């Protein structure tokens, strides 16, 4: 076929897809360490004891029988409780690649099964496209927001997922664009949803629903101190040397400003405090009082111009002195500590 002929580009794209798909290529299986998996789950998620115990049981069965057709886990819970990150932890524990497919708002069956190649601009479905990107046939595939699918004149995606999640049928999954049976039995499917009621009963029957409850204020406090505050400080270029948020202030934010089951709103409020601190750090005056630690710098220019308890402008840099040494010497020793007045100024005053 010549490049000038009609259908050349579409035929070439189809053949390239056939050659790029991982028909037999799989991730190398390693010996599963349940203790390491438990430690990773504990480090990534606080609480959720029953949920993590069920995941460890699932991994134990996979260790004893790697080719076992385990159930499709469906994490159901309010937003921000860690459903998506749990699926990522499962992939890390199994040492497999992770691919996420968002099903929120999907109403076209072709998003699952693909378009037929007779249509102009036809493409494969999201499942086949995801497998092409990870380049292995046994990843952990997350079907995110599976309760947000809808149906219209273009078909019902939830009905198309029946074949995908059925171990007896997904051996020969037929994508309309591919038009060749593809084996999905090696893929580990994990689904997430906010509510189980919108999921059609036939689809819900193919999954094992695991409820994730909301966090208590005590659990939110532990999550904030262990995970959220270090992450927020790192995202805003700060550290504990510049900003400190006491436990009492975190409790105040939880009680007054975050009335939710998850921790996303709590993280947004902590980020607002970090942004306010970043402004103060960025706009601070470059005149810093000298401390006793300056005695370590001994250059003629400094000895002549610096006196104890004097002030120095950081813009004046003597020759032969490393800039990093000066910045480390004059670093502010008193970090900004968040108090109730700063919380009310940044987040607003809320009447209790």
From TrEMBL:
GO biological-process terms attached to the record: protein catabolic process; proteolysis
Highest taxon listed in the record's lineage: Eukaryota
Keyword field: Hydrolase, Protease
Protein name: LON protease peroxisomal-like
Residue ranges of domain AAA+ ATPase in the record: 69-214
Any one GO molecular-function label of the UniProt entry: ATP-dependent peptidase activity
Keyword Nucleotide-binding: no
SUPFAM superfamilies documented for this protein: P-loop containing nucleoside triphosphate hydrolases
């Amino acid at each position: 076929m010549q490049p000038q002929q009609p259908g050349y580009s579409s035929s070439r794209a189809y053949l390239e897809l056939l050659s790029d798909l991982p028909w037999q290529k799989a991730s190398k299986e390693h010996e599963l360490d349940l203790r390491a998996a438990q430690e990773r789950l504990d480090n990534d998620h606080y609480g959720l004891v029953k949920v993590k115990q069920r995941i460890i049981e699932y991994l134990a069965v996979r260790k004893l029988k790697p080719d076992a057709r385990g159930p499709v886990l469906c994490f159901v819970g309010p937003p921000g409780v860690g459903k998506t990150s749990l699926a990522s932890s499962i992939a890390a524990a199994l040492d497999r690649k992770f691919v996420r497919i968002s099903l929120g708002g999907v109403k076209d069956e072709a998003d699952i099964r693909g378009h037929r190649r007779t249509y102009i601009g036809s493409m494969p479905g999201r499942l086949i496209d995801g497998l092409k990107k990870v380049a292995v046939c046994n990843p952990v595939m997350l079907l995110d927001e599976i309760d947000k699918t809808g149906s219209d004149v273009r078909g019902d995606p939830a009905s198309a997922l029946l074949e995908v999640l059925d171990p007896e049928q997904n051996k020969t999954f037929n994508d309309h664009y591919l038009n060749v049976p593809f084996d999905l039995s090696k893929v580990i499917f994990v689904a997430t949803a906010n509510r189980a009621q919108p999921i059609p009963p036939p689809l819900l029957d193919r999954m094992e629903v695991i409820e994730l409850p909301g966090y208590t204020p005590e659990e939110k406090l532990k999550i904030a101190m262990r995970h959220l505050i270090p992450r927020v400080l790192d995202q805003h270029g700060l550290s504990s040397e510049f900003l400190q948020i006491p436990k009492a202030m975190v409790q105040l934010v939880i009680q007054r400003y975050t009335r939710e089951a998850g921790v996303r709103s709590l993280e947004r409020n902590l980020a607002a405090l970090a942004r306010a601190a970043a402004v103060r750090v960025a706009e601070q005056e470059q005149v810093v009082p000298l401390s006793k630690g300056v005695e370590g710098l001994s250059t003629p220019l400094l000895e002549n111009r610096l006196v104890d308890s004097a002030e120095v402008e950081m813009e004046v840099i003597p020759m032969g002195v490393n800039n990093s040494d000066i910045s480390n010497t004059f670093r502010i020793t008193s970090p900004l500590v968040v108090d109730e007045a700063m919380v009310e100024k940044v987040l607003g005053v809320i009447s209790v």
